[in-house]
Automatic annotation (TrEMBL):
Residues 1-24 form the signal peptide. It comes from Oricola thermophila. InterPro entries: Autotransporte_beta, Autotransporte_beta_dom_sf, Pectin_lyase_fold/virulence. Keywords: Signal. It comes from the Bacteria. The keyword Magnesium does not apply. This is Autotransporter domain-containing protein.
Length: 687
């Protein structure tokens, strides 16, 4: 550290007496120019510039490359700055409101050879280049003044003991690293802050390997520390984040990995500290989380992975909150007096906190309801009759009907559809989000049973996948189904009736956060089957208004689902779940209209437009289960009444010979914030 003898105005006389100092109002080192004397800015507002290809290189003790003596001065380095002596800084700034920017290279090799050293308040320091120091106490960036702002998007490397990457000793500092900080000496923290109310963020990489060397160390009260990048330490007692101050706020959405003996992922000594995690914190030999102060709070959110111990030194005043989207089997030393899972199933037993996120338990009913709904749409398309006596039958029908014009008359027809859909819900409030896929293949046969009635049979297979955010729960489904359908067409009025039954085979994977398991995550797996039955009745009519035919209809559909019980394996918090029954009632009102064209080859085209609303009502048993030997009961998360609006488009290409290719889609959005998309394509013909 420099002596006070360099304080202005004595500094000017001292500078003149030093053979290696060059006084200047401003200076510019251009490409190809090399200076070996200290470049000094002496007046407020002076500007120093080292252009790309320019060099300042000093040798000897206390021979700084750049000396900024007054307030409001700025230095920009795009070239190279180097020092090799004891107490020789790359850039030394004494005044307030300094602006220092490095996008080139700063190298120091002597003891206490700081890359950038700033004493004044409100300094702004930017590094997008490279700062390398190799001497003991060779800090990369060092700031003493209050309200400093330090931003690193480049590389800072130090190799000596007590050679911190970025250090700030003033209050109200802002330190941001989006680049790389690497230190290898003892006590050489990646970032060190000793002032109150400092804000420290890392979205880049901090790597330390020395003994008692921490990724981020904050000493002041009211500090805010956030990591969305990577922090790795490998030295003994090399903590990832270490906080001494009271009322600190620490958040991790990135990765913290510590491997040394006695190294904690996050270590806090202050009172009233809050730690929030949605990333990975791993300690190979000690605690991942250790909070020594009173009134400590830990919030674990979706995406959390904890590997290593969790310890509260003052459990009587501590709080542990488990957020949505997490299943847990956490072993805790010093169980907090308050453990809260936001109303989700929770069991605390033998030092283990087990939480079950219920969202995934609605997966099987949701996929079955979605698949049978898409199948019902295919059956509706198959059964729908002509919209008017003058319109060709293929306008809304995929099989020929008597009087159908160019399509002729057939007593029997065949058809096949591929159908599928997806739905998703974003995380909101206390509920995790999810995505769902469902689909299937169906083939059918029908024939006339009277002049106004047709009936047929169908069979097929279905599949689905439900994935909660971060794959907290993933359920896969396969199944087979079959059924019968009939249509009665009484001119303007029509009625469609169908009955579907099937069996499903379900595989469930629940990711369980277990801080003592290898990798910090266990997978609780289970397989179980289910059966379902789904009758559907549609009534409607065809009405012409101003030359356009509209087809309003009302469909009532019920799906009854029975799911077997099962016992999970693979987790310390494995569940034993009882069998249950789920009911879905779907009342659909829609209006459809169609357009008809004939192409040059004589083939017929159809486009059908429809819109409407679904009223969906879920009812069913609660999930009854055993968790850690304790009986629990909870709603599956699907017992909700939903209104859903939708629009759909269907198109068909009907050709002479009785063959028709058709396709369609439907999009919808519900009051449950679920967005849906259904797709369908098929081929049909007549015998």
């Amino acid at each position: 550290m420099k002596l006070d003898l360099k304080l202005w105005p004595a500094s000017a006389l001292c500078a003149l007496m030093l053979p290696g100092a060059a006084m200047a109002a401003d200076f510019t080192i251009v490409d190809g120019q090399t200076e070996t004397m200290t470049q000094t800015l002496s007046d407020p507002g002076d500007v120093g510039t080292v252009e790309a290809g320019g060099t300042i290189s000093t040798a000897g003790n206390s021979e700084d490359a750049v000396w900024m003596q007054d307030d409001g001065q700025s230095v920009s380095n795009d070239g190279r700055i180097g020092t090799s002596g004891y107490d020789s800084y790359g850039i030394w700034s004494e005044g307030a409101d300094a602006l220092i920017s490095n996008s080139g290279t700063i190298e120091t090799s002597g003891e206490e050879g700081y890359g950038i050293y700033s004493e004044g308040a409100a300094a702004e320091i930017f590094n997008s280049g490279t700062i390398e120091t190799s001497g003991e106490e060779g800090y990369g960036i060092y700031s003493e003044g209050a309200a400093a702002e330090i931003f690193n998007s480049g590389t800072i490397e130090t190799s000596g003991d007590e050679a911190v990457g970025i250090a700030s000793f003033g209050a109200d500092a802002v330190i941001s690293n989006s680049g790389t900080i690497e230190t290898s000496g003892r006590w050489s923290d990646g970032i060190r802050s000793r002032g109150d109310a400092s804000v420290i963020s890392n979205s880049g990489m901090i790597e330390t390997s020395g003994e008692e060397t921490w990724g981020i160390w904050s000493w002041g009260d009211d500090a805010v520390i956030s990591n969305s990048g990577m922090i790795e330490t490998s030295g003994e007692d090399g903590h990832g984040i270490y906080s001494d101050g009271d009322a600190g706020v620490i958040s991790n959405a990135g990765t913290i990995i510590v491997t040394g003996n006695g190294a904690n992922g996050v270590m806090s000594w202050g009172d009233g500290v809050t730690v929030t995690n949605s990333g990975t914190i791993a300690s190979e030999q000690d605690n991942a989380l250790e909070l020594r102060g009173s009134n400590a709070t830990v919030n674990l959110l979706a995406g959390s992975v904890i590997r290593g111990g969790i310890e509260f030194a003052d459990p009587g005043t501590a709080t542990l909150n488990i957020g949505p989207g997490l299943n847990t089997a956490l072993t805790v030393t010093g169980m907090p007096a308050t453990v809260d899972a936001g109303g989700r199933p929770l069991v605390v037993s033998g030092g283990v906190v087990a939480v079950v996120d219920p969202v995934g338990f609605g997966a099987a009913p949701s996929m079955i309801a979605g698949a049978t709904g898409a199948l019902a749409n295919s059956l509706d398309r198959r059964m729908r009759g002509p919209v008017s006596s003058s319109a060709p039958s293929f306008v809304t029908s995929y099989f020929p009907v008597a009087g159908g014009g160019d399509e002729g008359t057939s007593a029997a027809g065949w058809w096949g559809d591929v159908f599928g859909g997806m739905s998703s819900r974003s995380a909101s409030g206390n509920e995790a989000g999810y995505g769902q896929l469902h689909g299937g293949v169906v083939v059918g046969f029908d024939r006339e049973v009277s002049a106004s009635t047709r009936a047929g049979l169908f069979a097929g297979g279905l599949a689905g996948r439900f994935a909660e955010d971060n794959d907290a729960t993933v359920v896969g489904m396969t199944g087979i189904f079959g059924g019968a359908y009939a249509r009665h067409d009484a001119g303007t009025f029509f009625a469609d009736l169908s009955l579907t039954g099937g069996v499903t085979f379900n595989d469930s994977d629940r990711q369980v956060l277990n801080n003592l398991a290898p990798g910090g995550i266990e997978t609780a797996t289970a397989s179980y089957s289910g059966v379902f039955a789904s009758p559907s009745l549609t009534v409607g009519g065809n009405y012409e208004v101003a030359g356009t035919t509209f087809t309003p209809s009302l469909r009532a559909r019920y799906t009854g689902i029975y799911l077997d019980g099962y016992t999970e394996t693979g987790s310390a918090a494995a569940l034993t779940v009882d069998s249950r029954v789920h009911h879905v009632f779907d009342l659909r009102a829609q209006v459809e209209t169609a357009l008809v064209d004939r192409d040059d080859a004589g083939d017929m085209q159809r486009v059908s437009l429809r819109a409407g609303v679904d009223g969906i009502f879920h009812r069913g048993d609660d999930v009854d289960a055993d968790l850690l030997g304790t009986g629990i009961s909870f709603a599956s998360g699907t017992d909700e009444d939903v209104a859903r609006g939708f629009v759909g488009v269907d198109a068909a290409h009907a050709m002479p010979g009785g063959r028709t290719f058709n396709a369609g889609f439907e999009v919808g959005a519900g009051t449950d914030s679920v967005v849906t998309l259904d797709l369908r394509a098929g081929l049909r013909g007549r015998f």
